[in-house]
């Protein structure tokens, strides 16, 4: 019998990040170091030269080549192209994304149907990935932290803000005290100053990580308030500041992302925390 064919190399950043995370523990020290730098600093990798990236990552340029080949790419330029494609998508305006989505609609086809199936397909892919990567131990720890909290501070900005707002609604219905940060009142620092060790925070952020969310999370962690994170990478600043964190990497359709997996996991945490509180 012939050997099984190797899976195709990721040509999108989400797939590459998943590959790096899966192999990170087995990488030699220097390769792991530059892999971590690449995931944390994708714009630098997309725009830099091998020499400038190596200097910033504190490795030799040859290490970049070794990492690329270890992951299965022909060389560093081949690997760098994944980061450049990500940057093109990130830097495109919503008008450009919409134009690109329109361009893939076949003649005489329903544009609404193509777009709906594309977005829903990306959401299904996100949900499946979240289910496969779900860490039962981290989930149990996160649930216990939230169940024990006097007040839960909900942190999230930009595309994560709808998730925190909905969590505020859900926790209210579950009779659990929660505060959503980021209101138009601009009194977030005053609200954060009220947090105590008997409270908890649920922080949601994805690359490129909203600076306000990172700052709020760090402020609470420094006060020894336990943080539960929902984020997209072990290298995320939210993951590093959290007592427990859960991974969500939302797939996109032509640059547009739903919050399907984020919402599902957030609501699951809220329900599980309320259930544990009642059980205890």
From TrEMBL:
It comes from the Bacteria. Signal peptide: none annotated. GO terms for biological process: carbohydrate derivative metabolic process. SUPFAM superfamilies: Homeodomain-like, SIS domain. Pfam families: HTH_6, SIS. CDD domains: SIS_RpiR. GO terms for molecular function: carbohydrate derivative binding; DNA binding; DNA-binding transcription factor activity. Residues 14-90 form the HTH rpiR-type domain. PANTHER family: GLUCOKINASE, TRANSCRIPTIONAL REGULATOR. This is Transcriptional regulator, RpiR family. It comes from uncultured Alphaproteobacteria bacterium. The lineage of its organism: Bacteria, Pseudomonadati, Pseudomonadota, Alphaproteobacteria, environmental samples.
């Amino acid at each position: 019998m012939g050997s099984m064919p190797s899976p195709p190399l990721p040509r999108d950043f989400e797939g590459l990040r998943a590959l790096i995370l899966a192999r990170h523990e087995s990488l030699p020290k220097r390769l792991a170091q530059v892999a971590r730098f690449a995931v944390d600093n994708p714009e630098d990798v997309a725009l830099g030269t091998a020499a400038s990236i190596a200097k910033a990552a504190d490795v030799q340029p040859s290490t970049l080549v070794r990492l690329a080949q270890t992951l299965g790419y022909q060389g560093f330029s081949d690997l760098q192209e994944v980061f450049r494609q990500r940057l093109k998508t990130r830097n495109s305006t919503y008008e450009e994304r919409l134009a690109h989505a329109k361009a893939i609609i076949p003649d005489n086809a329903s544009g609404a149907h193509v777009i709906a199936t594309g977005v829903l397909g990306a959401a299904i892919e996100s949900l499946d990935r979240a289910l496969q990567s779900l860490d039962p131990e981290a989930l149990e720890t996160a649930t216990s932290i939230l169940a024990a909290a006097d007040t839960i501070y909900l942190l999230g900005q930009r595309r994560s803000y709808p998730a925190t707002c909905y969590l505020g609604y859900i926790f209210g219905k579950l009779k659990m005290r929660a505060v959503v940060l980021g209101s138009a009142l601009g009194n977030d620092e005053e609200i954060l100053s009220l947090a105590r060790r008997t409270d908890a925070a649920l922080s949601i952020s994805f690359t490129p990580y909203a600076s306000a969310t990172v700052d709020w999370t760090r402020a609470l962690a420094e006060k020894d308030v336990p943080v539960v994170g929902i984020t997209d990478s072990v290298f995320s600043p939210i993951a590093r500041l959290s007592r427990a964190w859960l991974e969500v990497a939302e797939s996109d359709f032509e640059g547009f992302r739903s919050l399907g997996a984020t919402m599902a996991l957030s609501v699951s945490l809220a329900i599980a925390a309320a259930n544990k509180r009642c059980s205890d």
